[in-house]
Amino acid sequence: MDCRILKFKNESFDIVFDKGTLDAVVLGSNQEENVYITMREVWRVLKFGGYFIIITSAEPKNSLDLYKGSGMSWIYFDPIVVDNKNANDKNFYQKQFYIYIFQKIPTDENLTEK
Hints:
single chain, alpha+beta, five-stranded mixed β-sheet, about 30% strand
């Protein structure tokens, strides 16, 4: 399924988990626009109070502003840094991984609709 056009109903999930999808989107063409579209789709399918969890090798200084630029109302938690214990192994070059957690919150527009 194309992450920019999810075929799920609004507010279908409590949690959306990403391991590698946004990493791939960032490497493609129109990366900023496609990240924003994907973040908006994730926001749409999450229930209010739901969480979007991203596991990535992308450092916060390189990606967090991009994720936040989607224009959706999120609570952003401080990234969790996970040290890769296999970093010295020639097959594992990445020294750290990051876990980003976003919580969907209502916008003023959503509050007035209810």
